[in-house]
Amino acid sequence: MNVLQQMQRVSAIVGRRTYATTFVPPASLENVARRRDSGKPLPQSPNIYTGRPSYYDQLNALETALQHTQRALRNLQLLPLPQFARDAIPPPNPVWKNKRVLAEEIAESLTVTRYRRVINLLNQLDECRRIADVAGHHSLAESLARVLQDFEPANKEAVLARGKRKPVKIDEYGRSYTIGRRKESTARVWVIPVQDKTGETSTTSVQTPEAPLEDELSAGEVENEGSKAPESLLDPVPDVPPAPVEVTTTNILINNTPLVQYFAHQADRETVVRPFKIAGLLGAFNVFAIVRGGGTTGQSGAISLGIARALVAHVPKVETILRKAKLLRRDPRMVERKKTGLAKAREAYTWVKR
What we know:
It comes from Obba rivulosa. By secondary structure, the protein is of the alpha+beta class.
């Protein structure tokens, strides 16, 4: 008998053996001693094995809040919102913490993709907050505002105020002070209404392109105030023309120099007086400007921007006209810097073979 046959016989005998085991009924399992705990604390976060538990905990909390909010708005029949109702919602002005600050609070590094994922959820929650606020559900809006407050910077009001321009004020003498910039030039501009011999400003008699008929009639009444009224209807009405406004080159002084003498080129002079021509207020204001830096093109553009901003303060009706003409916009174009190894910004040196 070989070894293979012996092994088969032993395995057959062992397979026929039966062992008696104690049967434990289910009711007595409670009395069985439980296995001792290993002593390791349970993980506080279910995302411990992701490698970034703090980030995914914040992400899951925002997703859960968004789901509950959308469900509540659907129950209130505020979602889905039609387009005309969505257009009536006030525009958003969210200011969130930047990637560096948010990473420091989470104590984990954030990539741009993960940061955008958080910002996307915050924008959706902010939209739901605005919908609830407009619909009159202030309790829901306040709860969402408390959630979003943790992701807003402490200087939110200061950040929102950066883009707002301070209104131009007119002093007791009727002067306005504005600042204009173009390229490397900066101009400080004072605009003063022209006064006639009676001491009244002549801006009332200047017709703007959008002036209504009532303004023309009121201007005619002001002009005829100086004429003597007839004693009877049969007496002829004296024809007294209004005193014309004297417009000379000294109405616009730049660095205490008349406009014609300061700018030798006609194009620069046209740039300075362009806001007056477009607004229809040529000869209605005196201008005194102090300009520094840059060349003639930059200085004329800076003065033009300062004059346009001042005209809006004196005559608010011309704001639309000047804005359409792009005179209220600071020209962002700047001179490109010179590069190392090049003759200028982009021009290369002449190649010499020898």
